[in-house]
Amino acid sequence: MAEFPRPRVVVSSCLGLDACRFDASSASSRFVERLQPHVDLVPVCPELSLGLGAPRPPVRLVQLDGQTRLLQPTTGRDLTDAMRDFARSFLESLPPVDGFLLKSRSPSCGLRDARLYRADHPSPLPQPRPGMFAEAVRARFPDLPAEDEARLTNRSIREHFLAAVFAFADLRHALEDGSRAGLAAFHARYKLVLLAYDEQRLRALGRLLGDAPRRLPQAVREAYATDFRAALRRPPRRGAVVNVLLHSLGHLSHRLTEEERSYFLQLAEAYRARRLPLGVPVAVLRVWALRFSVSYLLGQRFLMPFPESLVCLEDSGRGEGWI
């Protein structure tokens, strides 16, 4: 069984960790419950951190004089500057983190769906926007995975988020000792992942390591980390993933029967046509790799990008992902 470093994930406290919503309630999240044994959570409630208490009068984003302000309508308080100061201070003081899991629709933490109001009208504008704290997260950590609990009910989005979070935690650990050997071993584990996401960056990162001395200068480590994270910023195309499936099959093909090879090709095409999740052909590859003791494939994170106990078949059917 593969071993995974523990990712460090910033999470909205109200997602089952603290009763800190405006009405002193908590929004339960089964995903956070499943995640807790495998990650180190860094909880945050920006509104509580401003001293607003729970319960508290709600806050909202308001368009005022051409600017977006964070207001508390019942008290008349303008919390914009206080929220921006808190976000800057909190994010600057963080230890290295691997991702963010924030509360949807929150005027503070919503990543894309916070309601924006006009000052002279009770109804929200038709186009939602990021909450004020979430906007600061995106600006400071553009290459880290950030999702909300609503989107993570979609299996494809959830599994892509998990794959990135665990990959970045693995990268963080590989960079700690500063040796080329440690980072080269990491790079070897993620060759198929990088082949699926960004073949050009796979080759560029390989050249970067090939030219590096035994002890990696800080500039080399930072360049590798920046390019690796950028490679995983967006989900890969299905065609690229199918190519990785066929590449993997090549390591097994001479040991398989014609019927087995044909069956796998059907699975790969079903995935390409969106009739199967990626987990189906990947599971077949893992079984064959185990059966024939193909160490190269067994060492590839592509076949198990995150702990198996986090695999969940529940799916809202909303959204679009690569898996």
Could you please describe the fold and organization of this structure?
The chain is of the alpha/beta class. It folds into two domains: about 10-155, no CATH class; about 155-323, no CATH class. Helix content is about 45%, strand content about 10%. The protein has helices spanning about 30-35, 45-50, 80-95, 130-140, 155-175, 180-190, 190-195, 200-210, 220-230, 240-250, 260-270, 280-290, 295-300, and strands spanning about 10, 40-45, 60-65, 65-70, 75-80, 100, 115-120, 145-150. Strands 2-1-6-8 form a four-stranded parallel sheet. It has a four-stranded mixed sheet with strand order 5-4-3-7. Helix 1 (about 30-35) links the parallel strand 1 and strand 2 (about 40-45). Helix 3 packs parallel to helix 4, helix 8 runs antiparallel to helix 9 (about 220-230) and helix 10 runs antiparallel to helix 11.
Can you lay out the helices and strands and say which pair or pack?
Blueprint: E1 8-12, H1 30-35, E2 40-44, H2 46-49, E3 60-64, E4 67-72, E5 77-78, H3 80-93, E6 99-102, E7 116-118, H4 132-140, E8 146-148, H5 155-176, H6 180-189, H7 191-197, H8 199-210, H9 218-231, H10 238-250, H11 258-272, H12 279-292, H13 295-298
Parallel strand pairs: 1-2, 1-6, 3-7, 6-8
Antiparallel strand pairs: 3-4, 4-5
